[in-house]
């Protein structure tokens, strides 16, 4: 078996392993006990997704697709969810309400 993916934490390792298994690749997630020994400090690099030698190339292609889709989704979320956008509209609404109340 070879390491196909080095996850940040055990949850991400299981997400990737589930995606690979859904595509017909048998996986093994290692590092459960090592990460538990570190506690909740945020230790990284202990959770790995292992696949059989003959499935490594196909697994890495699927993982590359997963990571690129995740990066695109994160950039779209960042563009749409900017605090300044909400703050500007809030100020516009407050000014309009104040003007209406002052006028009437």
In short:
This protein has helices spanning 10-22, 32-38, 56-80, 83-103, and strands spanning 2-7, 27-30, 47-51.
Give structural notes.
The structure is a single chain. This protein has helices at 10-22, 32-38, 56-80, 83-103, and strands spanning 2-7, 27-30, 47-51. The model has no long low-confidence stretch (mean pLDDT 80). A three-stranded antiparallel β-sheet has the order 1-3-2. With 104 residues, the chain is of the alpha+beta class. It is built from four helices and three strands, in the order βαβαβαα. Helices cover 63% and strands 14% of the residues.
Structural class: alpha+beta
Instruction: Quote the average pLDDT.
Output: 80
Q: Based on Cα principal axes, name the global outline.
A: rod-shaped
Detail the poorly predicted runs.
none
Our count of helices gives 4
Order of helices and strands: EHEHEHH
Helicity, as a percent range: 55-70%
How many DSSP E strands?
3
Strand order of the largest sheet: 1-3-2
Strand count, sense and closure of the main sheet?
Answer: 3 strands, antiparallel
How much of the sequence lies in strands comes to: 5-15%
Distance between the terminal alpha carbons, to the nearest Å?
A: 76 Å
Radius of gyration, taken over Cα atoms and rounded to an integer in Å: 23 Å
